[in-house]
Structure formats: structure tokens, C-alpha cells
Specification:
Radius of gyration: 30 Å
Shape: elongated
Number of strands: 9
Helix content: 55-70%
CATH topology of the largest domain: MetI-like fold
Low-confidence stretches: none
Mean pLDDT: 88
Distance between the termini: 72 Å
Strand content: 5-15%
Number of helices: 15
Length: 419
């Protein structure tokens, strides 16, 4: 409430000290919007001086010369600095920024966890977008429709995929998959669009063949016939990639996205993560979901079929509902695996801590950030503590997600237990 007599800025941080005519002193941090201390240090007007490290304070007043020790190690951390937009010096506008270190002494640490949390969710979303439909549908088919002899070969092979080290997948994604996708973008999108259409068309054509031909294939072995269909669609999509690029995108789809559509393109992007991490998550979801579907009592399916239901009706209205708790658990465990994945996102994303939902741009996740920066952080420093906070945020996220998943699973189990 009194006029300010003196303002003392810190030399190494964006904090400052203010002294008023009443002898009250305040310590503030501009970037974090924090008022750290308000204290009466003198009776009436005074003058102050602060040490270069902002750890000592001298106050001269009518009472004499007083010395104070300032213990203020982490003033730049606040809720708004960690999770809100901050307008940093020399920046054109407020933003979510993570930039913990720099080469010059005038650098101001930018420790926003928002882009890291966003990158974690973004990577998990694109991975689950690929993995969840494929794994669940594969689980249904192998447990319900596939011949037992064929299932005994397919299931162990898919589960064996889970033993593949994620560092190998990350190395493969960063070194081979990322440039391959960049050079074959039209073919990749054609493959994603044509593959389900081609499989459905092949199934329709198979159903229209004479009964004698269809009966020649043992029941439950029809999936083997899809192998040449999948290979043909995959080969054809990649072969026409260059022609599609010339016909529709002026010879270069990447430049067309950047110049004509205004969509930034980074070689190591979320599409690479979706394919690589989705491949890593598929075995986890598949194994649990397949066991849940296979464990549905045979009497339920036989009773449904005996009452006139088709196999598809039995699957969607009896088997799916009964196995829903296990399927939901599989999805949540797969989601947890995707959220906590480190090596794939570390090696194949470019590690750019930005908040962009664009599938053609990269990201940095909480787990990858801790793995990259923990060895170089100063023990006990602000950066070091924020990295531990990031690990705690990741732990809390998985804990809350698993708790909600367990509650929902128990509710589904209670709801469909009567079946």
C-alpha cells in the first residue's frame, strides 16, 4: 500500500525484489506470476542491495545495517508455468513451451508439462487407433471362428511378437519405416483404405462361389485364403504410390501438404508411431481379449445357435457381452502399455515437444523426456525436480486410468454375470 522506493532485479533469473517506503519487502517472479514473499524488514524508509546469486540481502535503514539470507531455489515453478500458457521474453505470444536447457547464460528455462502430456496422449491415441480394431477382431476370429488346429499355430505366433524388444522396433521405425513412409505416402494411405475393402470384397466373392468349392475348404480354415489377397493389395498399393503422387499431388505429396494445404510435415511423425507402437501393443490386447472370448462357456454359444441365432448374432449378442469385461481390460492394459512406452517414441518421433494434433508432426512423451534429460540434469535442481514431477504425473495418469478401468470392468461383470 506504500509507494515503491526500489526494485532490484535478479541477475540470473526473471525474479525481482521490491522495497516500499514503509520498509516492507516483496520477492516476485514475473514468468511464473508468483508472489514468493512479503516481509517487514525495517521501520520506515530503507535502501537494499542484493547479491548476484540473489541469496543475500543487505538493508540499510535508521535501525542500521541488516543482513538477510534468501532461500528461494525454485521460484520459476507454479501451476500456471507448468500447465498454462506463458508469455516468455522475446516470444510473440503466450504458449506451451518445454525447453529446459540452452547454450547461453541469458536463457530462461521453460518447463511446461502440457506439451509432454499432450504428446503422451497423442502417441497412445494413434497407436490404439491401429492396434485396438486389429487386435480385438483377430481375438474374436481366432477364438470363435478359427479351426482349433490353426488357432494352436496362430495364437503363439502373435503372442511371440510381444517378446520383440521395443528398442529394436524403435530402431526399425526410425531408420527404415520413417523414410519409407515419407517416400510412399499415397501408397500407405491407399493400403489403409483398400485393405478392409479388399478383404470384404474377397469374403463376398467367396460367399458367391458354388457350394462344392466352399465345402472343399475345411471349416475354420478360410482365413488362409486371405493371405494372397492381403499380399496382393499391399503390393499393388505400394506399386501405384508413385503414379498416385504424380496424378494427384504434383509429384511430391510432402511438398503438396506443406505448400498447398499448409500442413507441416516431419519425417518422424505420429503416423510412424501409430504403426510401430501399434504393432507393439497388438499382442498385449490380442492375448487377453482372445482368452476372454475363448473362456465364454460353450453352453451359451450352443444354446444360442440351437434357438436359431446365426453365428454372427451369437457372437455380437452373447459372446461379446459375456466377454466384455475381459475385452475392456485388454484395451486398458494396451492403453497403459502405449502411454508408458519409451524407446519407440524416443527413437521414432523426433522428440519435438509441441502441442499439435497433426498426424504428420512429431511429439515428445513424458516417459521419453525423462529418459532423455534425466542423465543431464543437475541433481537437486529445478529441472531435476520437474523431471521427477513428470514421472509422478505419468504414474498418476496410469493409476487413475487403471482404477477407472477396474471399476468399469467390475460393473460389466456384474451386469452380464447372469448370462
Amino acid at each position: 500500500s506504500s509507494p515503491i522506493r526500489q526494485i532490484l532485479p535478479e541477475e540470473r533469473r526473471k525474479g525481482f525484489l521490491a522495497l516500499d517506503d514503509a520498509g516492507s519487502i516483496g520477492i516476485f517472479h514475473s514468468t511464473a506470476h508468483r508472489t514468493l514473499l512479503k516481509e517487514q524488514v525495517a521501520e520506515g524508509a530503507a535502501l537494499a542491495a542484493m547479491s548476484p546469486r540473489a541469496t543475500r540481502l543487505l538493508v540499510e535503514s535508521e535501525q542500521g545495517l541488516q543482513r538477510f539470507v534468501i532461500d528461494n531455489p525454485h521460484p520459476e515453478i507454479s501451476w500456471s508455468a507448468l500447465w498454462g500458457k506463458v508469455w516468455y521474453e522475446s516470444y510473440p505470444e503466450p504458449g506451451y513451451v518445454w525447453q529446459s536447457t540452452s547454450a547461453n547464460g541469458d536463457f530462461e528455462p521453460k518447463l511446461s508439462l502440457a506439451p509432454l502430456a499432450f504428446g503422451t496422449l497423442k502417441a497412445a491415441f494413434y497407436a490404439m487407433l491401429l492396434a485396438a480394431p486389429l487386435a480385438i477382431c483377430a481375438a474374436f476370429y481366432t477364438a470363435y471362428f478359427m479351426a482349433p488346429r490353426l488357432r494352436s499355430k496362430v495364437k503363439p505366433i502373435i503372442e511371440l511378437m510381444e517378446a520383440l524388444p521395443t528398442v529394436i522396433l524403435g530402431f526399425f521405425a526410425g531408420l527404415f519405416l520413417a523414410p519409407f513412409l515419407e517416400n510412399h505416402l499415397p501408397g500407405i494411405f491407399s493400403l489403409l483404405l483398400l485393405m478392409p475393402v479388399g478383404i470384404l470384397f474377397a469374403a463376398w466373392a467367396w460367399s458367391r462361389l458354388p457350394q462344392a468349392v466352399r465345402l472343399a475348404v475345411p471349416d475354420g480354415w478360410e482365413a488362409v485364403l486371405l493371405i494372397p489377397v492381403i499380399l496382393l493389395i499391399g503390393f499393388g498399393s505400394l506399386e501405384i504410390s508413385g503414379h498416385l503422387e504424380n496424378w494427384f499431388f504434383g509429384g511430391d505429396m510432402r511438398l503438396w501438404l506443406s505448400n498447398d494445404m499448409g500442413i507441416p510435415f516431419d519425417q518422424r511423425n505420429a503416423l510412424v508411431i501409430g504403426l510401430a507402437m501399434g504393432f507393439a501393443v497388438i499382442p498385449t490386447i490380442y492375448s487377453i481379449a482372445e482368452d476372454a472370448v475363448f473362456s465364454v462357456p460353450r453352453s451359451l454359444t450352443l444354446g444360442s445357435l440351437a434357438l436359431g441365432a446365426t453365428p454372427w448374432q451369437t457372437l455380437t449378442r452373447v459372446v461379446l457381452l459375456t466377454a466384455s469385461p475381459g475385452i475392456f481390460s485388454a484395451l486398458m492394459i494396451g492403453m497403459g502399455r502405449a502411454v508408458g512406452e519409451t524407446m519407440i517414441v524416443l527413437m521414432a518421433t523426433g522428440n519435438t515437444p509441441i502441442m499439435e494434433a497433426n498426424i504428420f508432426e512429431g511429439m515428445r512423451t513424458l516417459a521419453a523426456n525423462v529418459a532423455v534429460e534425466m542423465p543431464e540434469s543437475e541433481v537437486g535442481g529445478t529441472h531435476y525436480r520437474v523431471l521427477f514431477l513428470a514421472a509422478l504425473v505419468l504414474l498418476m495418469f496410469t493409476f487413475v486410468m487403471n482404477t477407472l478401468a477396474e471399476l468399469i470392468r467390475q460393473r460389466l461383470r456384474g451386469k452380464y454375470a447372469s448370462l
